[in-house]
Amino acid sequence: MFDTHVNLHGEPYEEDLQDVLARARESGVQRMLAICDRLDNFPAVLRIAEAQPDIWCSIGVHPHHSKDFTDLTVDALVEGAKSAKVVAIGETGLDFHYGYSPEDAQVKSLKTHIEAARQTDLPLILHTREADDMMGDILEEEFARGEFVPLLHCYTGGLRLAQRGLALGGFVSVSGILSFKSAREVRAVIAEVPMERIILETDCPYLAPVPMRGRRNEPSYLRHVAEALATLKDIPVDEVIAMTDENAQRLFSKVRAK
């Protein structure tokens, strides 16, 4: 299995990161993608990836933090992506639920990341919350200026944005939310997404899947996400694991090259 979105740096795993990684490997997780949320955290994220043969990472600024990096440049992202361990740009995006950063800062940051994805030919990891229409419009407008591959991560948006992203050659990732009893709308949308465009993630330490809800999430729980997707799609879980792993390696081709 390939856990395509793990947040391993920082306090949640300070005391037992090596144990967490050991449990992940024992559970069948063979690859992990460590996500950069702030540019000043990139060195820590990169160090984790460089220390482990089965971990790669991204470079980017989460939309919540875009107000803190208004001087972010394409060159800074492209330079960081020169590392063999950096296989994606982001996570970036739009989040108007919490309003931690103003709209203009989020949009500017998103477009900076898009240009970096173009220049590096790396996939673009996108976080979207309460911004489906604007996200879809920006993706289509920017794609017309030059192609890139969008990944709608931890997807909880509507069917229309998923369709717009897929039409651009994009992918959708599913997390433990898929297993939540209350997530009927999410399941209805993912049911319409073709299997060849779906990948798995835990988004740990957040969003632990059923039956682990209430605990700190970790990559070893990824099989529960696969099981939720298998139930939804009525496909054997081993087939889901094989298909999503192949999809992830196709998307993150820099991993496959190694």
TrEMBL record:
GO terms for molecular function: DNA nuclease activity; hydrolase activity, acting on ester bonds; metal ion binding. The keyword Hydrolase applies. Keywords: Hydrolase, Metal-binding. InterPro entries: DNase_TatD-rel_CS, Metal_Hydrolase, TatD-like, TatD/YcfH-like. GO terms for cellular component: cytosol. A divalent metal cation 1 binds at H5, E91, D203. Transmembrane segments: none annotated. Signal peptide: none annotated. SUPFAM superfamilies: Metallo-dependent hydrolases. A divalent metal cation 2 binds at H127, H153. CDD domains: TatD_DNAse. Belongs to the metallo-dependent hydrolases superfamily. TatD-type hydrolase family. This is LuxR family transcriptional regulator. It comes from Hyphomonas beringensis. The lineage of its organism: Bacteria, Pseudomonadati, Pseudomonadota, Alphaproteobacteria, Hyphomonadales.
